[in-house]
């Protein structure tokens, strides 16, 4: 029997945001961003097993938010590491047995239950299912970045994909992949799995599935959610 | 004496939008999107020379909006072509003499006067100045796109740039570049200039400088403008 897990990475302390509140805890339409994200996974399935990775110093803050908002769910909380890579690795350690694991950014509250379901379905077939979208704008590659006037060249944007989360994997596969050493080029879970030689299967994410990393992103998320609420 | 021109391309009839109103005419915070864009160029400089390229069937609509909103500016209107490439080419034909030309999408109302100024300043020095931003998310390249399970590979996203407008050029340079034949790979003005062998100089655009192509984009633009208004 295969169990479905969501490994939610909410590791950052949000130093980029210019706000003392870590960005995963900022309020969006009446509740913390991270709570929206978790609720969407429960809307997908009440039986999903959630592993939430938080920086240790953020755990008491989260616990007070949980009681303030009456957010009563049986979530396994794990201490984050010094990087996203280490945080995911810590989260994977508590998952055992035959599993499908959707790794997802805590600050992507606009993921939908449909997208989550699609990622589990496809990962069961292909080993992995990575949300991605085509580029809407032109793309260039820069050469000699260190030079004052870097040369750049036009690319055929139809061949490129912007990568989002969820990134969903068969449990054995992603756990084995994360046995590798961390390095700077491993910016997401798909690149870790690719490094280990596993096939990467992309599926269609959504332009609305944004990552909240700036105050502007929070306003954009608010506008997109307001629209969804009114439909 | 060098004159500064803005060549505003508002060519699309917005079939993607599911709205009978072409997207450049949709209302955003009390006025058409295109009017916001043009006003930002006038905020940069009252003396800028604007060439506005519109599909011929949209010109009467625009003229009625101009009188409805009392938008009194001396703008040269040019008929659009069958593609963005042809529209830009038509616009360039009416510009003569020593010029710097900022080519800009009519549906990017969130460009700022500062960005426009920077593009003119840098194009005077380097021949071109192309607004661009780094990628915030991971990027993959797809091989064998036609196959059901396309293979893809992780890329080092720090080497890539998303391209926006304004794309500003010395007039002689971009007019000569547009003498080339149109083809599908020429998705923006920088790729046309590159094809002709001219140097491409990138400068820092802004994540807020979005292109409005969907109803969601219109909501996002509204949210971003509301923030700017309240600062």
Describe the protein:
2 copies of one chain form a homodimer. Chain A is α/β, with parallel strands linked by helices and 231 residues long. Chain A is built from 7 helices and 11 strands. Chain A has helices at 33-44, 59-69, 84-93, 113-126, 171-177, 189-195, 215-230, and strands at residues 3-9, 27-28, 31-32, 49-54, 76-79, 99-105, 128-134, 138-143, 151-154, 160-170, 202-204. In chain A, strands 5-4-1-6-10-7-11 form a 7-stranded mixed β-sheet. In chain A, strand 8 and strand 9 (151-154) form a beta hairpin. In chain A, helix 1 (33-44) crosses helix 4 (113-126). Chain A is globular and about 55 Å long. The model of chain A has no long low-confidence stretch (mean pLDDT 92). At the A-B interface, strand 8, strand 9, strand 10, helix 6 and helix 7 of A face strand 8, strand 9, strand 10, helix 6 and helix 7 of B.
Labels describing this entry:
two-stranded antiparallel ribbon; alpha/beta; homodimer; 7-stranded mixed β-sheet; 231 residues; 33% helix; globular
Topology, please?
The structure is a homodimer of 231-residue chains.
Chain A: E1 3-9, E2 27-28, E3 31-32, H1 33-44, E4 49-54, H2 59-69, E5 76-79, H3 84-93, E6 99-105, H4 113-126, E7 128-134, E8 138-143, E9 151-154, E10 160-170, H5 171-177, H6 189-195, E11 202-204, H7 215-230
Parallel strand pairs in A: 1-4, 1-6, 4-5, 7-11
Antiparallel strand pairs in A: 2-3, 6-10, 7-10, 8-9
């Amino acid at each position: 029997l295969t169990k479905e897990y969501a490994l939610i990475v909410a590791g950052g302390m949000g130093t980029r945001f210019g706000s003392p509140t870590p960005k995963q805890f900022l309020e969006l339409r009446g509740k913390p961003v991270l709570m929206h994200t978790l609720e969407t996974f429960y809307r997908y399935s009440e039986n999903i097993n959630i592993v939430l990775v938080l920086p240790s110093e953020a755990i008491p803050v989260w616990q007070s938010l949980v009681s303030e908002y009456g957010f009563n769910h049986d979530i396994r909380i794990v201490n984050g590491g010094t990087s996203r890579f280490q945080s995911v690795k810590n989260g994977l350690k508590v998952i055992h047995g035959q599993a499908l694991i959707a790794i997802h950014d805590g600050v992507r509250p606009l993921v939908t239950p449909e997208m989550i379901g699609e990622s589990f379905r496809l990962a069961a077939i292909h080993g992995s299912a990575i949300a991605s979208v085509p580029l809407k704008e032109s793309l260039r590659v820069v050469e000699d970045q260190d030079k004052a006037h870097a040369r750049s060249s036009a690319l055929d944007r139809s061949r490129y994909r912007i990568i989002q989360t969820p990134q969903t994997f068969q449990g054995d596969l992603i756990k084995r992949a994360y046995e590798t050493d961390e390095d700077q080029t491993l910016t997401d879970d798909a690149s870790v799995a690719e490094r280990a030689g596993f096939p990467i299967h992309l599926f269609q994410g959504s332009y609305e599935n944004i990552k909240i990393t700036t105050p502007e992103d929070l306003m954009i998320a608010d506008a997109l959610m307001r629209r969804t609420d009114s439909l």
